[in-house]
Design a protein that fits this description.
The complex is a heterodimer of chains A (291) and B (234). Chain A has helices at 2-30, 37-53, 59-82, 90-112, 139-161, 163-173, 175-181, 185-207, 217-232, 237-257, 262-277, and strands spanning 130-132, 135-137. With 291 residues, chain A is mainly alpha-helical. Chain A has a two-stranded antiparallel ribbon with strand order 1-2. Chain B folds into 2 domains: 2-77 and 153-232, P-loop containing nucleotide triphosphate hydrolases (Rossmann fold, 3-Layer(aba) Sandwich); 93-152. The complex binds adenosine-5'-triphosphate (ATP) and magnesium ion.
Chain lengths: 291, 234
């Protein structure tokens, strides 16, 4: 049973990590937690669903289109929610993004359900498990894991190698210094929201062939990603990735060895335990001065 | 080159800068002095476009810069080295410098400017791969000045470049600023260190409670620092 739990733990963990990356990206750059991040994930999944089921596009094409649409959705949330409130107090932003999450959820329900039905994309590859050393592994899981890792590597390269990535990092490290050299900081924020949403959308598209997607899935995903960022250390990219994998594994192992009901609440337990015993998380930059 | 007339800046209900008027002629070093909270940094923020003044004129080479985006100010040829240095701590020295040139496009030219920075501050060339946050205070100040040089400015505003540095490093910084000025750069120098201001500025304006109280020459600063010290409140 262990190898099976490990592969599914790593697969879901990779997806949590991707959702967490978007959360951390926006947090680092703007100092705000985007409470509508889970709904961006949800809509990304539904975009892909419609593109595949109704427009009949191949999966890979749908993946890229859904990522682009998610990016645009992120840009819209910047323009609609963040930029008008850029100087408002933190609590205002919390309420605004929570409110926005309900709006997005409403849109999801209106177009893709609301009567409780669950949608899923047909598997991309043969759903039958393959056996490696007698361990059953779903090929789909391998694809998801590989794609998620590829996305994360691309993301890391984007930040360390490209000028756009460096500009985003500079803006998050010190916005005033960024303004002073002539960076259009507001536009960087727009890009940040867009890229954050795009990564969430990509995670959703990778996940939908594995599990079901519903208009209400956003809150669940937000909690998992939040647990990942708290565990990894709020504000740390590496922490988000490590935390994502860790939460995925903890969930699977706890439900496999202790009690299946733990799968649902493992993320909450992680948040509680970390906040009590190690509030800064594993790679914590929490409490560091923001200029 | 830079003309500031009747500049007024408010933070919410508080007036912080009142009717400040001065000029920075091309090629000169002009000092701006005053005690803590006098409004020096606020003036530089208004000039850089970080805060929008409530009233007054800011003209650079005849072009109004009031209420413009900080990028427009940099593109016009005016750049600020902020108080507290504000290097990007997690990025390498080289990346800090390269991003100082975001407003420029010619890669070969940018590389030449990096060489100029490294010549002015040889220490930086030895540490170009280090994270800026791990450098000493003096080295970070060099990064901050170097980063500002990267936009090829014609006027540089410096906010307390000597603050918190050891006497030896202050001397190096003074020499570097003087060298930049000899190369044709005009400088608006905010300082609390009378010695530094006296060594560099031909003329200094003394600010108290957001208003210019008087103007003096660098020579007077050097010969009678006592008067100035009393204005700086120490
Ligand atoms: N963002 C702000 N909001 C409200 N008041 C501010 C703000 N920034 C500065 N002030 C106030 O404006 C006044 C001038 O501040 P400023 O930073 O310009 O002073 P300064 O001359 O640069 O002082 P120092 O030598 O300590 O750097 C101070 O009374 C300060 O408290
Ligand atoms: Mg100041």
């Amino acid at each position: 049973m262990l190898p099976f739990l490990l592969t599914s733990g790593l697969t879901t963990g990779a997806l949590y990590a991707m959702v967490a990356i978007g959360l951390v990206l926006v947090y680092r750059s703007t100092g705000h937690i985007n409470f509508s991040h889970g709904e961006l994930f949800m809509l990304g999944g539904f975009f892909a669903y419609s593109l595949i089921m109704f427009a009949g596009l191949p999966y890979v094409v749908a993946l890229f289109l859904a990522v682009i649409l998610s990016f645009l959705l992120g840009v819209i949330s910047d323009r609609l929610v963040y930029r008008p409130l850029i100087k408002a107090p933190g609590l205002t932003m919390v309420l605004a993004t929570v409110g926005f999450s309900y709006l997005l959820k409403g849109i999801g329900r209106y177009f893709w359900g609301g009567k409780g039905e669950y949608l899923s994309i047909p598997a991309i590859v043969d759903p039958a498990p393959i056996f490696i050393n007698d361990i059953p592994i779903l090929p789909q899981q391998l694809i998801v894991l590989g794609a998620a890792v590829a996305f994360m590597v691309a993301f890391a390269l984007f930040f360390s190698r490209t000028k756009a990535g460096k500009i985003m990092q500079a803006t998050s490290e010190n916005p005033t210094a960024s303004y002073l050299v002539g960076i259009r900081v507001e536009n960087v924020y727009t890009w940040t929201w867009g890229v954050g949403a795009a990564v969430a959308g990509a995670a959703a598209v990778l996940m939908t062939p594995l599990t079901l997607i519903t208009p209400d899935i956003g809150a669940t995903l937000l909690i998992k990603a939040f647990a990942a960022t708290i565990l990894g250390g709020l504000g740390s990219m590496t922490g988000a990735v490590v935390g994502g994998f860790a939460v995925g594994l903890i969930e699977q192992l706890a439900s496999g060895y202790i009690d299946t009901s733990l799968q649902e609440i493992a993320a909450f337990l992680v948040i509680m335990v970390v906040l009590v015993f190690r509030p800064a998380g594993l790679f914590g930059v929490y409490g560091q001065r923001r200029a | 080159m830079l003309t500031v007339k009747n500049l007024n800046v408010w933070y919410g209900p508080t007036e912080v800068v009142r009717d400040v008027t001065f000029e920075v002629p091309a090629g000169r070093i002009i000092g701006l002095m005053g005690g803590n909270g006098a409004g020096k940094s606020t003036i530089l923020k208004a000039l850089s476009g970080l805060v929008v003044p409530r009233g007054g004129i800011i003209e650079f080479d005849g072009k109004s810069l009031v209420g413009r985006h900080p990028r427009d100010v940099v593109e016009a040829g005016m750049v600020q080295v902020p108080q507290g240095r504000f290097v990007w701590p997690g990025m390498s020295v080289r990346d800090n410098l390269e991003l100082g040139a975001v407003t420029r496009t010619d890669k070969a030219e940018i590389r030449r400017t990096i060489d100029e920075v490294m010549t002015l501050f040889p220490t930086l060339s030895r540490k170009s791969g280090d994270r800026a946050g791990q450098l000493s205070g003096g080295e970070q100040q060099m990064v901050a000045v170097g980063r500002a040089m990267m936009s090829k400015p014609r006027l540089m505003m410096m906010d307390e470049p000597s603050a918190g540095l050891s006497p030896k490093v202050v001397e190096e910084m003074v020499a570097a600023i003087a060298a930049l000025n000899r190369g044709g750069l005009s400088i608006l120098l905010v300082e609390q260190n009378v010695g530094v201001a006296a060594a560099l500025a031909e003329e200094a304006h003394i600010l108290a409670n957001g208003e210019l109280s008087f103007t003096t020459t660098g020579r007077q600063l050097a010969t009678d620092p006592q008067v100035i010290r009393s204005y700086l409140g120490r």
